[in-house]
Amino acid sequence: MNKIALLKGGLNSENEVSLKTAEACFFALKELKYEIVEIDIKDQFISKIIDSKVSKCFNALHGSLGENGSIPGLLNCLKIPYTHSGVMASSIAINKKLTKEILSKNGIAFPKPINLKIGKYLSPLNYNKSFVIKPNSEGSSIGVKIIPENYKKNILSSEWINPNDLIAEEFINGQELTVGVLNGKSLCVTEIIAEKNTFYDYKSKYIKNGSKHIIPAEIPEEIRQLALSWAEKNGGEKPKNILYSVYLRSDISNYFGLENMVVTRLRDEATSTRVYCKKCYSCIAIDHVNYHNNVFMIQPDHCKQNFNVHIPPKAVINLQDHPDDFIELDSDNIPVFHSRKYPQERKRFLSIEPIAEFLSPPKTQAKGITIRDLISKIGTIKVLHLTKGEAL
């Protein structure tokens, strides 16, 4: 089927530019002989997508729903293929603070952050040089303001829709460079010179003759190579495959690298909490409400750890979904389970005295700190808002 939905418009600040994008895409898709159904993302748009019975969606949206992962999430549920990034990449990229946090761990440099005092007026704390204020989750340079050094006028908070979700950074004057990437490979470095303003703002982006693009950019080779390499950064080293998991007593004698840990939940209603390493993105530990803070799960050799995993196990569970990874034991005294799906197997599993004790509320206080104590020390739990079945 050659029928495609062209998603456009919406009710956000980038509606106008989305309609222009969609207009250009419409003629390009027409030339490719597609049957096109144009759908403006306003009232009843979900039913329009379903009723259109298209084979795929072309996402020509800008901002909010189109770029924050909402539309990709909806189309995942409807099982309709689409252009654009997926839910995770979109939800991270639209959030400047989160993007900076992730990329800075991978060697990407960012301007110095500036703390703001927010009331009726905005003012920088202990900073009097030029700085930039921008919304944390807007695109197309909407709401971006450059505040010059020693600025004396009041900056009204009401100039922004949500003044509590702003980001401020030192202003760095220099060339504007961008790098195109295709299939993970950098193509070239382009310099952008704004003609309609002092920086590459909304008008410079979208008004005719608003900016000039120089391809390739006239920059030193060292800078060109640096820009190309940064564009190809892939978010850190791929963690090792998880060969097996171990349940340990929630009794931690010491810990290190707290600054490299982040705590997440997959969804608001999730019953498990996960501790990840910011450097290699591997999972360090998992807590669950049913563990009663008495045990927690780790994945040995998945990140640098000093857990003692050489203690003889009380039982082994070989998952039926991974028959190639079944563990052969030398001892006949250690019970092996191939599933906990069935009531009889679960009952037999919980009949093992140490396991029953571990999976019950603790009778004695931990000698060290518990996994939940550690989680509270790490800080705020980040909820990823993934739909069930979505890849992490």
Strand order of the largest sheet: 13-17-16-15-14-20
Q: Runs with pLDDT <50, length 5+?
A: 235-240, 320-327
Terminal-residue CA separation: 31 Å
Number of helices: 11
Compact description:
The chain is built from eleven helices and 20 strands.
Write a structural description.
It is a single chain. This protein is an alpha+beta fold and 392 residues long. It has helices at 15-31, 45-52, 64-67, 70-78, 87-93, 96-104, 202-206, 221-231, 343-350, 353-358, 371-378; strands at 3-8, 35-40, 56-59, 116-118, 121-124, 131-135, 145-147, 155-156, 166-170, 176-182, 185-194, 211-214, 246-249, 261-265, 272-277, 283-288, 295-298, 316-317, 336-337, 381-383. It has four domains: 3-93, Rossmann fold, CATH 3.40.50; 111-170; 176-231, no CATH class; 246-314 and 352-383, no CATH class. Mean pLDDT is 81; it is low at 235-240 and 320-327. The strands form six sheets. The chain has a six-stranded mixed beta sheet, covered by helices on one side.
